[in-house]
């Protein structure tokens, strides 16, 4: 990690000059907000904005291009935060994420390219969606750091059967969730800490082993994105160990409180999945997974 | 119906003087917004506001008491609409709905009382939630009137298994949906018309016979609230006739387009159910079903 990068603007400038953060932007410019980026032809903008408004937990819309085709200024969707506080002067949405993905007529055309200058047109609209990095900092600060941070892994992310409220062309999508294991006795505190981050997924949407079934998650040890979850020692699979432990100790209240259970949050992969599923025509762009756009606003600016 | 009542204020004054609209407020003061009313002890206000923010389709929050204990002014949760445009000077939230329900420690204490003057304290906060009457007017205006209006019945409402995103004390709740039958070929038009009414449930959240299963609806002909749905002639049950017709005509595209299918919207009973399920302590109040608070804002003021 480059410790000389302390602001969002510095992180963006390094990305723009293609001295790229190969491992992604996790941990860069601590305390600054990072955003999922989705860039659509303008005819889909209303439906997408509405999709976010109807599903704010998995799709928290932070900002969008100030006008159609505008690549250097945004309007804010956050109360009491201005667009130029989110992305300040001199930003370039086409170049300031470390890596991008380009889709044409819903087929992947370029993977992990350095910029989208050639693909951007005056008909494109960029959307910035909140990311859970924000509340992870807050959890770590109170002694409840997410497991995957301690182990240097990516957060596991799962497809679910929980349906989004549809919006225009965006139909049939389902929630994607991220998972962090916590002890049962810590769940209320974890809920409380993350609740304030309403613009970046907020409090968990479900928790416990029953939630795995309710959400229709296929295999807790085989996430669709990110790294497989591990037990606290980083050696055993999370799911199997826990199920075994649970059946051994099911009558012991103290042991039950100590048991680790999966805790699920809405995930910013959700809108990307919804966009891919919609079969859009034309050129759609996004940041490459983990290679977020680092903003000028701080996590605390968005916490209610 | 009293045709001399043409404004929201007039409707409220009749309610206040207990010359009550016995059949409820449906059709009163056409074009004026009607609201579901939920009044909570202030310690639950943050969690409830957040519940609405996380689940805007079934729980569209329009406004709330201007301050704790305030019964005659609201602050708006709608962009570009002021609180005093929603409920103007002289309103009295304790008396201006035709009938109220009162719960103490989550048990029903009074049903259909004329006011809640005795129960209201300076610790209570009132919340106004959007109602689908708004978009029904718009549907009727383009020649797509909801079936139950034509038959003079109440809209059927169903409990579903689709879970709300939890918020603090409000956990484990599920969506309640309202249903209006439409021909398959009219669904896109119906979606388009209701989409603009984002502050009052917006476009449908699901449709078709498959949706009945996806939503975990027990019996399409036995709604949990409102009246059972009828076929177009008002004589046959909606569910059985349609299933039969479907199996007869399944290979005929034109017939398929003409087939009536159930179309589901988020329903304002959802937040009431969530409140009842939370087992709150103290005095909680609400309007009596169908006896809404009529506002000073017009449906069109809230359409995006």
State the major sheet of chain A.
8 strands, antiparallel
Order of helices and strands of chain A: HEHEEHEEEHHEEHEHHHEHEEH
How would you classify the quaternary structure? homodimer
pLDDT averaged over residues of chain A: 90
Number of helices of chain A: 11
Main interface pair?
A-B, 21 and 21 residues
End-to-end CA span of chain A: 30 Å
DSSP, total strands of chain A: 12
Q: Share of helix among residues of chain A?
A: 25-40%
Structural class of chain A: alpha+beta
Strand content of chain A: 15-25%
Radius of gyration of chain A, whole Å: 19 Å
Low-confidence stretches of chain A: none
Specify the overall morphology of chain A: globular
Explain this structure.
Chains A, B: Residues 232-252 have a biased composition (Basic and acidic residues). The structure is a homodimer of 304-residue chains. Chain A is α+β, with helices and mostly antiparallel strands and 304 residues long. Chain A is built from eleven helices and twelve strands. Chain A has helices at residues 8-16, 45-54, 83-86, 133-141, 147-150, 187-195, 209-214, 238-248, 253-258, 269-277, 299-302; strands at residues 32-41, 61-65, 74-76, 100-104, 107-113, 124-129, 157-163, 174-183, 206-207, 260-266, 283-287, 293-298. In chain A, strand 4 (100-104) and strand 5 (107-113) form a beta hairpin. Chain A is globular. The A-B interface holds A 50, 53-54, 56-57, 162-163, 165-168, 191, 195, 198, 202-206, 214, 266 and B 50, 53-54, 56-57, 162-163, 165-168, 191, 195, 198, 202-206, 214, 266.
